[in-house]
Amino acid sequence: MASRPEIQAPPEIFYNDIEARKYTSSSRIIEIQARLSERALELLALPEDGVPRLLLDIGCGSGLSGETLSENGHNWIGLDISPSMLDIALEREAEGDLLLGDMGQGLGLRPGVIDGAISISAVQVHFIVFTILIIILYFLFYRSSLLRS
């Protein structure tokens, strides 16, 4: 299994200006980000009391998911490892506060500061790989236990 890109080389190698612009200008990506962001908000099950919440967008990139958060009346903080993606978010006048950082290093925020978090294009890739690994291990274990019986 390949190592995470951010461990192999600096983020500028994988998330440079060209790739960041290509990603942000893709109508397919924009549509997918919006739909997944809407679903993420549903899954957060935030109270529907009209009070804006402070949400964290982990791996916010150029702020595509943050647009959905803003459109739904929420405030947000975006965290991303790529300066190029954050530069585009600034150019696009993203309404959230943007932080340059690695999600694996934490943020150092006090508990209760953030009302919820989403991650549309960052965490799920690692989750999918992890899930596939668990399934493979399960079948290997299950198969080996059947062979011993």
UniProtKB/TrEMBL annotation:
The keyword tRNA-binding does not apply. It comes from the Eukaryota. GO terms for cellular component: nucleolus. GO terms for molecular function: rRNA (guanine) methyltransferase activity. The keyword Cytoplasm does not apply. One of its GO terms (biological process) is rRNA (guanine-N7)-methylation. Residues 56-122 form the Methyltransferase domain. CDD domains: AdoMet_MTases. Keywords: Membrane, Transmembrane, Transmembrane helix. This is Methyltransferase domain-containing protein. It comes from Corymbia citriodora subsp. variegata. The lineage of its organism: Eukaryota, Viridiplantae, Streptophyta, Embryophyta, Tracheophyta.
